[in-house]
Amino acid sequence: VTAVLSGWILQSILRFYSSSANKELFSRKALAISLQTQLIFFIPFFLTIWYISQDIILAFLCSITVFAVSIQFSILPIIQSGFLSKKIIKSEAIRILTYVGTAVIFLKFSGISYLYSLFIAVFASYFFSLVYLILQAIKFFKKQDSEIENLNNESVHLFKKFFKYGAPLSLWFIFFYLVAYVDKLFMIKYFGAEVQGNYQAMYDLLSKSITLIISPITTSVFPILTLSYVKGNNLEIRKLLKKIILYEALGFFVCSFLYWWF
């Protein structure tokens, strides 16, 4: 859900941030688009979860969690495009520690439902991570001495630019996640829960280990590629892409060896 609601905004920010004339104003408008999008879908999502679960508290917790996650996903690319990778690492540390601490406290001492406790923990973790990222973004833009320009024309067309670039990506996200789950449904129907469980464990091991290797590279490289594209530095882009392919190939062989070894 968060990938569909905020994935297109995330990718659009990464694409257009470097070429924006006033990055602070661009970031504010981008976050405003994200906030408006989440508010539009908040009530329909809440009502859908309430109808399915027949639990209004669970529906509310699930809805505010998705809201917080989606907003956090929208501010992450701003921090990423500003080359503040250390801030992302710190925000993730805050999120993980808050999640674990909140979950343990509620599960041990509150006596409320297991699902309620986990959703509260997830919401709290993303909320505090989001607050940290917002504060870091404010500090980052205060240090910028760029001249304030009148960008009303850019502001008017920003949503159109985002939608034109990001909407196809949202459709791809939907297709990707559906494909990732359809095979599991077929497997549990025709082969049983045990086979599906073993398959799920292997799938998670493979996909998450590969993601662990790729994510730092994509997180750091995408803003560099975008900035080089804006400057028209095609030679630097080609060199960087060759290095990426080399590193990914090495990572693939290392993972393959480890899978074979274990």
User: Tally the helices: what do you get?
Assistant: 8
Helix- and strand-based class?
mainly alpha
Note the gap between the termini: 35 Å
Average pLDDT rating? 77
**How many strand segments?**
0
Estimate the global geometry from the Cα principal axes: globular
Spans of at least 5 consecutive residues with low confidence: 146-152
Concise account of the structure shown:
The chain is globular, with a radius of gyration of 21 Å. The relative contact order is 0.11.
In terms of topology, how is this protein built?
Layout: H1 2-16, H2 23-53, H3 56-81, H4 85-110, H5 114-142, H6 152-190, H7 193-231, H8 234-261
What labels would you give this structure?
globular; 262 residues; 0% strand; mainly alpha
What does this entry look like structurally?
The chain has 262 residues and is mainly α. It is 89% helix and 0% strand. The chain has helices at 2-16, 23-53, 56-81, 85-110, 114-142, 152-190, 193-231, 234-261. Helix 1 packs parallel to helix 3 (56-81). Residues 146-152 have low confidence and may be disordered.
